[in-house]
Amino acid sequence: MKYDVTVIGSGPGGYVAAIRCAQLGMKTAIIEKYNVLGGTCLNVGCIPSKALLDSSEHFHNASHTFKEHGIELDNLKVNLEQMISRKAGVIKSNNDGIAYLMKKNKIDVFNGLGSFVSKNRIKIASESGEGQEIETEKVIIATGSKPTVLPFLPVDKERIITSTEALGLKEIPKHMIIIGGGVIGLELGSVYARLGAKITVVEFMDAIIPTMDRALGKELQRVLKKTLGFEFFFQHKVTGATNDGKNVKVTAENTKGETVTFEGDYCLVSIGRKPYTEGLNLEAAGVQMGERGMIAVNDHLETNVPGIFAIGDVVRGAMLAHKAEEEGVLVAEYMAGQKPHINYNLIPGVVYTWPEVACVGFTEEQLKEQGRAYKTGSFPFKASGRAKASMDTDGFVKVLADKNTDEILGVHMIGPRIADLIAEAVTAMEFRASAEDVARMSHAHPTYAEAMKEACLAATENRAIHI
Ligand code: FAD
User: Fold this and answer.
1) Angstrom distances, CA of residue 102 to CA of 6, 19, 45
2) Pocket, ligand 1, Cβ cutoff 6 A
3) Which residue intervals define the domain Pyridine nucleotide-disulphide oxidoreductase dimerisation in the entry (predicted)?
């Protein structure tokens, strides 16, 4: 069999790349080592975590805020088995959806581990050990990433776990110790805190979500403490963890060099993810690696071997599903002779806690570092009529604009449903809008989106109306 393009890996990078290649008339194959399509994002990442975040949010609201809304419930309890089973159903329906899209676009799907025999020949080894080989003109490597683990802290998948196990626990932890105050730890911590677990976050840095604008982490930390009772220990370097079958002990060193011990029943290790290239046999094709286990690529996402591309978590840049998707489309269009472009500065980042956190563009810290003249405008949700109506008054929208031209340089939000609201900021910045442009656009009332308009009004001569 001979293909124009073979995609290795069926995550959001791989399957989107395959669809775009097929749309552009290329005979396309996709290889996935598991027997379901969708990769990390669909099976053990974005989608299951959001399914559990939604379920746990319903429970938390029912037990904490319904009463104030005038809704009284008796004997409210969690059926974790049903919650996990609903999550599995959501995954299954999306797995089926991707399989349908492969069929619709006439993409051949191969299940098995893909590895290079040579630059143009790929071997597919199925679980049963059977193998077959296909010929291909070009290859897109989209093999994604795996959780990073600490060499001195073995993950036993029982009580010392990664996000993958945390998405399918059989009981609600009493006390979960989370190593790492990044996006995944805070999201999964929120799930179990809402269901009744005590959450302790042990973080090496001096803030949670430290790569985002510092104002966001500060506000999120305050709200998670207030609403879910999160405990945070910053500047603590974890040195080990043990599991005695019922409980875990995590040890860390504080800034004074003292050893601090945390005791709980689960320890979630969420310190990041690393690119995954195991079993690809890249040497057979002559593909060179870059730094930190990533595949080295140029601006067109082409490796050192012409015709072999790599996208998504396995290459440099943010480890995000939508970044992988954009890269999949870029590579397909580049192969077809088009001139696609990705503005990496405008890839939004989102944390699906409550309140949600979202950002795009430069942070205030980055602008200071660049020495760029900028101005800020902020609007708090406590001044929003819509937020008052839903009792979601924590958070704010902060807009950073160029001091001289008024062009929006960064938007940083924390508040209700802002994971969707950030799209307005991306659109505005993609068209290089000024804060004044957005400030003059009509925003429906009452909506959370009005906070974006008000923050832009605040950034242009401090003329926010409702504060
Ligand atoms: P992946 O999705 O990792 O897919 C790679 C695929 O390649 C896998 O299916 C793997 O089995 C397959 N593969 C690997 N090697 C081979 C081989 N040799 N042969 C055949 N197949 C192979 N991102 C967001 O944008 N939003 C979120 O809300 C979000 N939430 C997340 C929550 C969690 C808990 C986690 C863990 C991640 C989350 N992410 C989120 C990150 C997101 O999942 C990744 O950025 C995204 O999946 C990367 O896509 P990808 O296509 O590069 O790789």
Assistant:
1) 13, 7, 21
2) 8-14, 31-34, 39-41, 45-46, 49, 113-114, 142-145, 163, 184, 276, 279-280, 312-313, 319-322, 324, 352
3) 347-455
* Average pLDDT over all residues of the chain: 97
Q: Give the contacts of 258 (CB within 8 A, at least 6 positions apart).
A: none
Site of tokens 């749309």: 23
Q: Count of H helices and E strands in the chain? A: 13, 22
* Chain segment 178-209, per-residue pLDDT in tens: 999 999 999 999 999 999 999 999 999 999 99
Instruction: Summarize pLDDT for 412-451 with one digit per residue, the tens.
Output: 999 999 999 999 999 999 999 999 999 999 999 999 999 9
Q: Which atom of ligand 1 is nearest to the CA of 319?
A: 45
* Mutational test site, ligand 1, from 32, 37, 46, 146, max ligand atoms within 8 Å of CB: 46
Give residue-wise pLDDT tens across range 65-119: 999 999 999 999 999 999 999 999 999 999 999 999 999 999 999 999 999 999 9
Query: Residues 39, 43, 45, 47: is their CA dihedral positive or negative?
Result: positive
Q: Which atom of ligand 1 is nearest to the CA of 124?
A: 19
Is residue 310 within 8 Å of 303, Cβ to Cβ? yes
DSSP secondary structure letter of residue 289? B
Mapped onto helix, strand or coil, the DSSP state of residue 140 is strand
Q: What is the dihedral of CA 328, 332, 335, 337, to 10 degrees?
A: -120
Tokens (6 digits) for 103? 């069929």
Catalytic status, residue 445:
yes
Please report which residue ranges of 378-430 form alpha helices under DSSP H: 385-390, 418-430
In this structure, the residue with its CA closest to atom 9 of ligand 1 is 39
Given a cut of 90, whether residue 130 has pLDDT beyond it is no
**pLDDT mean over 319-335:** 98
| Contact between 237 and 145 (Cβ < 8 Å) | no
